[in-house]
Design goal:
This protein is mainly beta. 1% of the residues lie in helices and 41% in strands. The two termini are 18 Å apart. It binds alpha-D-galactopyranose.
Amino acid sequence: MPRIEEQPWGDSQYGRVKLYSLYNDQGNYVRISDWGATVQAICLQSASGAWLDVVLGYDNLAPYLDNPVSMGAVIGRYANRIGQARFELDGRTYPLPANHGDHQLHGGPEGFHLRRWSAESAVEDGQAVLRLQLSSPDGDQGFPGQLQVHCTYRWDNENRLQIDYAATTDAPTHLNLTNHSYFNLAGSGSSIYEHLLQLHADAYTPTDAGQIPTGEIRAVGGTVFDLRQPQPLGPLLNDPALAATNGFDHNWVLNGPSGELRKIAELHAPTSGLRMGCWTTEPGCQVFTTNFSGVGPSLKGGLPQVQHSAVCLETQHFPDSPNQAHFPSTVLRPGEIYRSTTIYGFRGVE
Ligand code: GLA
């Protein structure tokens, strides 16, 4: 039977924080904190008995209390960028606190990754389940509407981590949630140059110098963004077309109907044999290849934070949708229920 253990993990400005370990029948486990609804570890055991932790993270709570790179956390209210840190909704302009030049990134200076969520764990349908909940008051980081946000993690016996989000509001607002895990399927400490990435996306959203979408939906054919067949990341990340961002930090327009769960990506590390599939209901995915180095303290096991050491597959609506009328809408109105699901599934270590 799957099982869940919880342990105290330190203090925050919002009270005591816990770390939950969700075990499946194979003994493989995911560690999630109620601080930021953050995935701290995903540990899989190979046939030889060796453990592989496939996400970057920190050993202790302290670095997560300001978490400048959003390591493992749930991002809200608005994952990614809102240009000029403002939007207009129903004829009213809402200025937001900017934290990325003139723009807002990842929900503002005190986004959902810097909150303590309330948590309840259960074993249900052969899965280890952690239900997290957050109340976000009207005006939080500039956004209108009092929000109730639910994020449920399910870890099953097929080594799939399913994330279901649900939310309601009492006034019209914008909402765009994602999980910001940094994956390395060869284990932390190695580069991702040998990973192969496949993305089922025929187009992407080009950006300006401030990484705000220009509004164009551009076909990937003949560009470095064409990942429709699995591509090794090493040569791509050093392509001159990515010089401005030092790697991928772009949103792809996913194939298939938004709102329906479909497979959108596969990441493969030939060195470990491990593969990760990604399924989502979202229309977009920001691929970020850890383009910085030395940001934040050292990682689990004392490893330094180095460039190109992990891949984030941030399933989401497109950046700056509140200001781009032709992008799929991120408006949430009273009476509606926001719903979004993403699954990261692992295989190949058995
Ligand atoms: C996203 C952004 C990046 C960077 C990371 C870390 O991937 O697109 O530019 O800010 O988050 O927070």
